[in-house]
Amino acid sequence: MEFRKAGVIGAGAWGTALALVCARAGLDVVLQAREPEVVDSIRARRINEAFLPGVELDARVSVTPDFADLADCDLILAVPPAQFMRSTLAAFQPHAKPGAPILLCSKGIERGSLKLMTQVLAETLPDAPAAVLSGPSFAADVSRGLPTAVTLACEDAALGEELMWTLSAPGFRPYLATDLIGAEVGGAIKNVLAIACGLSEGRGLGRSAHAALITRGFAEMTRLGVALGAEPQTVAGLCGLGDLVLTCSSPQSRNMSLGLALGQGQTVEQALAGKRSVAEGYESAPAVRELAARAGVEMPICEGVAALLAGETTVEGLIDALLSRPLKSEQG
């Protein structure tokens, strides 16, 4: 299959950056935006002022509010917030080109159903070939063409290789995998762990505590991933460990910045107020906690973050709970 035209659903910072990746790879791109002001801004000034200011879009990128304008696209990149993936795909379904792959680029677990985005896709567009794009990638870096490596997971290895070569562009390097679960689990859990790292930073707990949270958080990510059917080596790759390191190491991460604000004494409501971009960890934390309980997997850091966000504990209570846990083997 030859891909010539890509549709990108969702014109937040990440969707806009991926539209630029597609254009740099030589594809014509239709970027679907829900917000009228985003459509107007791109059409008038070639810039998404609301979500990616200062970055001019390639001439190959057009913008539309209408899913019907994506009907002739050979490839779809789905980039709405994870909690809106189901409703977005359902709205797009009547316009989907038969056989066009859907590349899922949002990270999260659906609340209520506890389903991964590939499972949501299977229920809304069951005939669409599925793939997942995940890895350490800030939209601002990708939009500027700075070097970025990501995981592209697809169970159909031949299709995955075509997608890998299609999206490879200067500064953007996909690595191929076939483990969809591993690619998705890492991307969802790292957002919750980034909130914990932000809390540590906001409380001034030091770099040693930060390193410990990343390391023990990675152990939690691996345990749940394996319980759900992921391959450990996938979780140890770009889409798991790589994404975890990036998201937990910079306030540029929406999730870490949320934790930072909470650690500095803001309430959850204050920390989220006025934010246009979604901190996926806030939405995914309850689902991760419930999924871990269902799978019988111990995830004290993620469980603590979920409890804090739900108002069941305080920052001090979360820290005390983690530090007072029974001593154990590191491999346990």
TrEMBL record:
Keywords: Cytoplasm, Lipid biosynthesis, Lipid metabolism, NAD, NADP, Nucleotide-binding, Oxidoreductase, Phospholipid biosynthesis, Phospholipid metabolism. The active site is at K190 (proton acceptor). Gene3D superfamilies: N-(1-d-carboxylethyl)-l-norvaline Dehydrogenase, domain 2 (1.10.1040.10), NAD(P)-binding Rossmann-like Domain (3.40.50.720). One of its GO terms (cellular component) is cytosol. InterPro entries: 6-PGluconate_DH-like_C_sf, 6PGD_dom2, G3P_DH_NAD-dep, G3P_DH_NAD-dep_C, G3P_DH_NAD-dep_N, NAD(P)-bd_dom_sf. GO terms for biological process: carbohydrate metabolic process; glycerol-3-phosphate biosynthetic process; glycerol-3-phosphate catabolic process; glycerophospholipid metabolic process; phospholipid biosynthetic process. Residues 179-319 form the Glycerol-3-phosphate dehydrogenase NAD-dependent C-terminal domain. It comes from the Bacteria. Residues 6-158 form the Glycerol-3-phosphate dehydrogenase NAD-dependent N-terminal domain. NADPH binds at W14, R34, K107, A139, R254, V278, E280. NAD(+) binds at G10, A11, G12, A13, W14, G15, F84, A139, R254. Sn-glycerol 3-phosphate binds at K107, G135, S137, K190, D243, S253, R254, N255. Its EC number is 1.1.1.94. It catalyses: sn-glycerol 3-phosphate + NAD(+) = dihydroxyacetone phosphate + NADH + H(+); sn-glycerol 3-phosphate + NADP(+) = dihydroxyacetone phosphate + NADPH + H(+). SUPFAM superfamilies: 6-phosphogluconate dehydrogenase C-terminal domain-like, NAD(P)-binding Rossmann-fold domains. PROSITE patterns: NAD_G3PDH (PS00957). Pathway: Membrane lipid metabolism; glycerophospholipid metabolism. Belongs to the NAD-dependent glycerol-3-phosphate dehydrogenase family. Catalyzes the reduction of the glycolytic intermediate dihydroxyacetone phosphate (DHAP) to sn-glycerol 3-phosphate (G3P), the key precursor for phospholipid synthesis. This is Glycerol-3-phosphate dehydrogenase [NAD(P)+]. It comes from Brevundimonas subvibrioides. The lineage of its organism: Bacteria, Pseudomonadati, Pseudomonadota, Alphaproteobacteria, Caulobacterales. The gene is gpsA.
